[in-house]
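Aim 2, interim progress. The first record below pairs a target sequence with its structure tokens.
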Amino acid sequence: MKRVFACVGAVAAALLVAAPIASADPDADARLANRHDWSREFASQNNLILSSRILISPYGTTRPLMCSGGDGHYSLFPYDCTQNDDNGVAHPVDRVVPLGGGGIWVYR
């Protein structure tokens, strides 16, 4: 009987060691959940507003500019921005000239 328990214990230990450990990135979920449309906060050729954020894009602000941040908890400013093209493919929009919380973002 002791051998049976020893074998069961050895097999259980081997399974626990060999089983993959789940490694979810909680920050990734927070970044995706925090994405929202920042288009109205940017000045562009079709959104002439007084803003410290300037967008250079073939679509201006007519297409949603989806960014993370700006909720006041993680970040006050937009980051990790994308804008979709005519085919729905997301392209990065990067800040190339930082000016405090503003600057110039360029569609890539």
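The second target in this work package is listed in the same format:
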Amino acid sequence: MKNKTLQSSFHRPYIKFLSAIFTAITIPIFLGVFKYFSAGEGRIDEFFSNFGYEFTITLIINLTFLFIIIFPLSILIDGLIIMKVKNKKTFIFPSYVISYVLIGIISGSIYSYFISSFNPISSILYGLELTFLFVIYQFTFNWLINKIKIILSKNAQS
């Protein structure tokens, strides 16, 4: 029973898809709000670009980054963790943290290579940021769906 619950709660590609979309939308919104509030009187000579342009460009970059690199790697990692925990009663949180840190480092390195960056540390930090926001949304959506299923099963029983 526990193995079935574990498999059903962590291997849901539609939740990963929703998490990727919400992650890709959240980052440009935070960047736009941060730029708006950090623009003080001393930044008058800075080049002006509107929020819609920055939102669109950042959204395109984040969606490609998430759907080409992080999304497939996370499906692979979830499958490997489910296979590892299938017959054992182990605590899987450290496995998830370590595996998603590795996904962030790998995806940041790949991103750094493709943009020909001479400073891969910033790209790796960007990959880690996207990966952990992706994981936060994924666990939030898993929690919500599990709560909804519990409520629906209680209503069906009564």
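The two ends are 23 Å apart (CA to CA). This observation will shape the mutagenesis plan for the next reporting period.
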